[in-house]
Structure formats: C-alpha cells, structure tokens
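Thread: Newbie trying to understand structure tokens

Hi all, I'm a second-year student working on a class project, and my supervisor (Dr. K.) asked me to get a predicted structure for one chain before our next meeting. I've only ever worked with sequences, so writing a 3D structure as a token string is new to me. If someone could post the tokens and maybe explain what I'm looking at, I'd be very grateful. Here's the chain:
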Amino acid sequence: MSYTRMKTNQNIADKDWELLARSIYDENSNCAADETESVAKELVSDVNEREQLHQMAAQVDLYFELKKYPADQAWNKVESRIHNQAPTSTVFRKLIANPIFRIAAALIFAALLLVSGYEVIYRPAATHELLEISATDQILKTFTLPDGTLVSLNTDTKLQFPKRFGRKTREVTIIGEAFFEVKPNKNKPFIIHAGKAQIKVLGTSFNVSAYPETKLVEVIVETGKVQVVNKTTETELTNELILAPGDKGTLVYSSNSLLKTTNQDPNFLAWKTHNLIFKATSLAEVIGNLEKVYKINIRLADSRLNGLLLTAQFNDYPLDFILKVIETTFQIEAQKVNGQYILKARS
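---
Reply by user tm_fold:
Sure, no problem. This is what the structure looks like when written as tokens:
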C-alpha cells in the first residue's frame, strides 16, 4: 500500500480511523456498513489494497475465534492506547500521525493482547509441580508444607505435595508413616492419599501409617475429626469412616474392609516423641516398640522371656538406659552383637 497515497489523507479525523480499525477486526462491531465503507474508500482508494488490509485483519479474527478471547476487552485496551498514550519524540509523533501505522498498530496490538490474554486468563491450569520429601535415616524430620501444615516423617517415608496447593483442596500423597498437624482451613480441606485409603480433614492432628509391606493403612486421631475413605471398596462394604479423638481407622487390604476401633496403643506416637508407656506389657511387645522407636534389632535368646511383664514409663530416654532398666528388673542381660541386641537370662 502506497505511503504517499495514504499521506494525502492527513485531514481524516481520528474517529474515522478508529471506525475503520474497529470494523476491520471486530466482527461484533455495531458500525454501520455504509458509514464504514465510505470511510474505507476515502482512506484507502485502491480496492486491492483494501482487500489486503481485510485479509490481514482476518488473521487476527481467526485468533479471536480460536482462543475465544473477548474482542471488547481487546478493543478497549487498543482504544485506550490510541487515545491516551502520549508520544515522547518527534519521530514517534510522525508515526502516530501516519494513518496506516494506526491501523497496523491496532491490529498488531490486538493480536498481542489476545495471545497474552489467553495465556493469563484462559490457559488451563498447569499441572502442579510436585515436590517430594523423605526420611530414610534414623533422624526425625519435621517439615512445614506450603499452607503451614506441619508433618513429621518416620523412617522410610516419602511425602509428595504440590509446590502450591490448588484453590479448592490441599492434596498430598504418603508412603510410610507420618504425623500431621493440619493448618485449619474450612474452605480448603486437606486430603491425604495413602495407598488404597483417602484421608480428609479440615484442621486436626493425627497419625497415618501406610507402609506398602504391611498391606494396611492405619489412621489414629489425636485432635479434631478425620474422614477415612476406602477408594477401592465394593458397594456392599463400609467405604467411609468418621474418626474422633482416640479413634483408630484401619483399612485391611486382604479383606478390603474398613474398620473403626478405639485406639488401645498408648505408644502409637512414640516414634515421634520417644515417650513410652508400658503397663504390664509383655517383653515381646516392649521389644517391638523399642525396635520401631530406636530403629534397632532386638532379639530374645529364650522364648520363655516373652512372658515377662514390664510396667514403666520412659520420657525420651536413650535406648541404653531403657535396656539397663529391663536388665535390672528381670535379672537378664543385653549384649550387642553385630549391630543388634540379644536379651538372655544371666548365666
């Protein structure tokens, strides 16, 4: 299109250029057809040149249609730029005064608006980047999640969670055992995926054990209420439990059953606190607790020692001290051999 020819039309008013530009790329424009055609003929005398301009605009129209970007918003921004953006130099003022530059700028700016607007407003939410934390040693690890929830991981435990929680829920996945102190948010429930179970809460504290080798999931509530759902249950079986403080929910894989009982284990959280309570507890059960808490192997040399009953309370005492108490109480001895302890009767 000839710049010289267009240059002769400097007396055309801004509103006419605005009318032409709007009629070209806004198919919903209410501009009168006769009025638009009259302005178009005056601004661009050559039919082929007008056709080229319309073809350019058609490409932008296609973008509008494909991306479903609202034309009114695009036009309002373009119109604002045309009338409100003050030129900062003589060269820029000359460019703005150039009619063909105005239309081209409007078309290009509209294209940029629809692309950027689509990215910001209409782009589907990207998959959240998943982060993973784990505990593979004997050191207790406590983490703070993006919402302020505290989670303590037991040994051989992995927790996956998004870098940023979604608008409606806070979802994580656990393999192993962890204690959660969930930050309350009644509008955004906290959901834990643990094997075949789903645990849903609003704000509470509870323990989840979901080691794959155990073939079960256990949930014990300390405070608040927890919903436990069997994600793979048959319709005739119980598929949901509501647990209150002191309740224990167990999902058994072999029978695909979800059971609710009262927690009878005072040491369910000892792996985290190292506080142990034994009330006429068999030595075999005592050893089981010590192995879980202190991550050590302990073996009884004589099965007859299983029947010994221990009553004691240990508040974060070292393992050597507890074994010394056991030795003294039952007149037995503990020997450490190849990294494990062996309890046997004194000779």
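A couple of things are worth pointing out once you decode it. Residues 130-262 form a domain with the Jelly Rolls fold (CATH 2.60.120.1440). The chain is about 35% helix and 30% strand. Feel free to ask follow-ups in this thread.
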